[in-house]
Amino acid sequence: MGKFKLDRRTMLRGAGSIAIALPWLEAMGHDKLAHAAGTPAKRFLSVYQPGGTVLDKFWPSATDPTTSSILTPLAAHKAKLLVLKGLNMDCAVGEQHQAGIIGFLTGSQQTGSPKDYSSYPSIDQLIATRLQADATTHRPHGSLQFGVRWATGKSHGLLSPINSATFEDSAKLTPLPPRLDPQQIFTDLFGTLEPGMGGGTGAADARVARRKSVLDYVDKRYVALSGRLGAADKAKLDNHLTKLREIEMALKTGVVSSSTCKQPTKVDTKGYNPTTGLMSGNAGEIVDNASDAMIPTVGKFMMDMMVMAFACNLTNVGHFQWTDTEAKHTFPWLSLKDHHHFYQHDGGFQPVQCEKIAVWYSQMHAYLLAGMAAVEVAPGVSLLDESVVFFGSELGHPPTHEKKSVPFMLAGGGGGLKGGRMIDFGGKSHNNLLVSIMNLFGDTRTTVGDPKYNSGALQGLTG
Length: 463
Prior knowledge:
The chain is an alpha/beta fold. It has helices at about 55-60, 100-105, 125-135, 180-190, 200-225, 230-250, 290-295, 295-310, 340-345, 350-375, 430-440, and strands at about 10-15, 20, 45-50, 80-90, 145, 315-320, 375-380, 380, 385-390, 410, 420-430. It has two domains: about 40-195 and about 275-455, Alkaline Phosphatase, subunit A, CATH 3.40.720; about 195-255. Helices cover about 30% and strands about 10% of the residues. Strand 7 and strand 8 (about 380) form a beta hairpin. Helix 4 runs parallel beside helix 8 (about 295-310) and helix 8 packs parallel to helix 10. The two termini are about 45 Å apart.
């Protein structure tokens, strides 16, 4: 009798649509272990921070991507970090800040008047459409958008071209506002770890009973399979069975967790008002000290939830927005009493204060990447390894609103993305970067957004 072979895609199926994947086994051969360089990325996260940067403090002095003062906090992740210099946001035609945030993910110029939005969808939504069309990657949420201290200043807490970065992949191109309430996000996504299934206590009991019956059924299938495996595979299978029973025990408390999917620690955000923007003043003269002081706490909590939303397969596309283009909130934890827009140009360009803010954002980016790197989705493969994270802003040089050499970065290993470097593209359109990101997901398109700002995908992102 020949050696027993097992397809690596094998899943043991129970009643209805529930299926439980096997661990990797030697009987499956050796083609699974590493995340292959040519494998399309599986998850996308865009991260927006406002107001450009202090350019001479941002760009590294060498190819090492974390040698500058602003990027030093990211040193632990430099192997997964690609800094992209010399990319101009040529599509940002329109109001100084609005045109930038609209073009950031769309490659589109602002249509018509300053009250108008984008004429093309944003790449996060293009990627969501692509991934949701693949039955093997379908998630309850096509995408998730989170925002911290959003809609300050002139937008007065309401959706506006000055705070909108993501746009539907549909004929309507509807702008998608971020979710703002951290407690509601936690309840909706992680209250039971079974979002979207609805029902009250009786329904929850029925779900538990059904899943327990499926686990019992699958357990018997595992036992039957075990008799056909070698010693090493049997040991792996026994460990997997133990984890399966841990899931069953967790069902009794209403929380289904695993080594990958865990309910994030719930954080007390008392004092933070997610809708404080509704009370904002045009010039940032109305200050909400309590909410401003909570920004780091709320931001980390939201990043934790975004990471777990990926890990729990609730979504594979996200957008994280620290604020809007006005950023008219204070930074009490940095001992800065005025708002970011004041330090950019309202009070005259103040590079020391802007650098201090930019360093703090880099610290937050490092926190996010550490969270993604800590989640193992397969032996030796992290969530970050399979993902593409896109960091960017709406302009490059704060005092002039210039959008040349905008501070863009990519992180992760999805699609074969290769970090540990800085690449200078010498003034190419950032639309080409958007094309390249789409290509990392297996999409072969050659333009994104307005075709006149495209000249082809960037070379060298995958090494």
